[in-house]
Every structure is written in C-alpha cells, then in structure tokens.
Amino acid sequence: MIALKGRVVTDYEVWDDGVVLVRDGTIYDVLPDRSSLPVDVQAHDYGEALILPGFVDLQVNGAFGTDVATDPDGLAKLSGKLLSTGVTSYLPTVITSPVSRYEEVLPVLAGAMEPRGNVGAEPLGLHLEGPFIDLRYRGAHPAASVLAPDPGLLEALLDLAPVRLVTLAPEKEGSEALMELARNRGVVVSAGHTDANFDAAYATLDRYAPSVTHLFNAMSPLHHRAPGLVGAAFAHPRVVCGLIPDGRHVHPEMVALAFRMLGPDRVYLVTDSISAAGMGTGEYALASRRVYVEDDGVPRLGSGVIAGSVLTMGEAFKNILAFTSCTLPEAARMVASTPARLVGEGRRRGRLMPGFAADITVLGPDLHVRSVWKAGRRVYETNSF
C-alpha cells in the first residue's frame, strides 16, 4: 500500500495533515490526519504540497507540437506530455473538418486510444467540435467545412471512433434529430458555436444538452434584451458550462461572474489548447488551419481571429483561484469532478474518494505541478522543488 502525505484537497475541505492511501490502482482511503496509518505502507511525504484529484480536460485540440486532427499517431506522445500539466484524463478534440479528414483521422485516433500499457494521460473518448455549427459564430473553424445538420453523417462519424462529446448549434434546422441521435448513442451534447436565442437555447438545455462549450466564446453575446445561450445557461438550474480561463478568451471579471452565477459544480475548466501549447512563438497546425503565435502568446489565424489557446490546466487552476477568489476545493471540482461527471466518469474519477481511480495531481506551494500519479503509479515527478 502507498501513502501520499500532504495537504489533501477533498470536495469541501483541505486537510493540512492528510493522507491518501492507494492500493491496486485505486484509492483505498483518505484520512484527515496521520494518526491511524496502516503499518508497512510505502510513504511519500509531500509536505506543504497540495494533493488533488487528477485534472480532466474535455477540450484538447493538441499541445507540445502535436495536433490531434493532423497527427493522430502522435496521441501517445501528447498523452505523455500532458502529465506535466496535471492532466490525467482528457478528450482529444477535432474541430470542424472536411468529411474526408474525419474518415481518415477518426479510425486512427480510435486505434490510438486503445489501452496498450502506455503511461500517460488517458483519452476518455473524442470531442467532436463541429461540423454542425453556426457559420457566423464559427470562430477559427473553416467556413467551407461547416455543414447543415445531417444525421446520417453524424451516425457515420460515431461509428468511426468512440465519441464522448459533440458540440453543435442547436438552433439549426434539423439539429433536433442530431441531438436525439447523439443521446441515443450515449454521446453528451454540448451547445456551442451558436446564434441560438434565449428560448431555443433554454429548451435545448432542458431537453438535450447538459453542457455549453466554452461559455461566452463563439456564441451571441449576453444582452439585456436578448440573453441568448449565455442567459439561458445562467437561468437553467442544471446545465454545466466550459470556460477557458486564460484571461484572453474571457475577461477575468466575466469568469468571476460565471462562477458566481453557476458555482463550482456547474463550471468546468478547459484549455482549448492547440499544438502551440508548451512550445513558443511560431506557426502551428489546428486541423486544416494554420495558426500563428507571436510574443503576446495568443494563437491567431492570419485574419487575426483567436484560434484556441496555449493554456495548460495547471495554469487554469491558478487562474481560476486568482480570477474568482474561490476556495481550493472549489477550484479542484472545476478541474476534476465537474468535467468527469459530465462525461459519465463521475463515479470513478475526479475525486479523492475510496474506490475511485488513483489519478492524483500534486501541486507545490507555488501551485506548479510537482508530481502526478495515474492508476496508483507515479508517472511524473519534477525535482525543481
């Protein structure tokens, strides 16, 4: 049995002298102090470091030079590199693309996601962001590949790979059939890249879509006479919303507003990272687009449109604390239990609880990632502390 000692972040408290006990890849117990440790444990004392559930990122287009949509064979490399950001589970994301690219890439991604003993962040399935979106709010998605709702095509795409989440514009004629199909196939629907008005958006959230993709971005803005999807998300009692907390996609005060309106169990943080994350200035791929990163660190198309981010989940955790003054347990829920619950993983990952997978991220006192454990194995460690 392994014992991880440190400041354990539970759902609602921080146990400064806590212990997480791990056995056979799962969490055996979580103790508020060290007074009742079993004998013969292999102890790892992290002192003042925070012990948290492993981070779950539901929107990863790429990072560390790998683009999911153009380099599917690089998925194992990407999974390994993501550990350094605290991520233990994620959804590789493919934005709006030509049909021929889907047919080429999705089967390769499906094969790359099969367990082969690789040690890295675990792909839980794919996130298809598009192609059934609103042309006006396509963002960095290529206009030529945006399609009208086509249930036959969606079914074909779902047959090619294990899709876990699909982002679409719910107001488009024929979208209801897409959402019915996705729900029947066990795929989570997320409303995004949309011009839906309040009534249409609220009805969609109430019936089909438990999620909103990157709230505020690529959707009609919140207006006092036309609340749109943002207003519907605030008004609805259950929907959860993705947020990109890099300070560029959404102003920090608007991030704070969303947190006040929704709380930590209805906000999940995403990076929306592209292949440029973890790299530097230069030219990078985002599916069929070319993206440029200059000294300001914001990925943009040649037209100037923002195209994803270079944010990491470790940075997202620090930013949400700074932007909202939330507690450590609240921040942990936004990067772990809330996204895990959305995609049907809420009973086995995202929390430090007995019986859950021993996916654990350790942050030093400066909130930098110090150590990562996956299924009870230490898979990342830095000596810079």
Give a verbal description of the structure.
It is a single chain. It contains 9 helices and 21 strands. The chain is an alpha/beta fold and 385 residues long. The protein has 2 domains: 82 residues, Urease, subunit C, domain 1, CATH 2.30.40; 288 residues, Alpha-Beta Barrel (TIM Barrel), CATH 3.20.20. Strands 5, 8, 9, 10, 11, 12, 13, 14 and 15 form a 9-stranded parallel β-sheet that branches. A hairpin with a 2-residue loop joins strand 16 and strand 17. Helix 5 crosses helix 6. The two termini are 25 Å apart. The mean pLDDT is 96.
Strand-helix topology:
Layout: E1 2-9, E2 14-23, E3 26-31, E4 42-53, E5 55-60, E6 62-63, E7 66-67, H1 75-82, E8 87-95, H2 99-112, E9 122-123, E10 126-129, H3 151-160, E11 163-168, H4 175-184, E12 188-191, H5 198-207, E13 211-212, H6 228-235, E14 240-243, H7 252-262, E15 267-269, E16 282-286, E17 289-293, E18 299-300, H8 313-324, H9 328-342, E19 360-363, E20 369-374, E21 377-381
Parallel strand pairs: 1-4, 5-8, 8-9, 8-10, 10-11, 11-12, 12-13, 13-14, 14-15
Antiparallel strand pairs: 1-2, 2-3, 4-19, 6-7, 16-17, 17-18, 19-20, 20-21
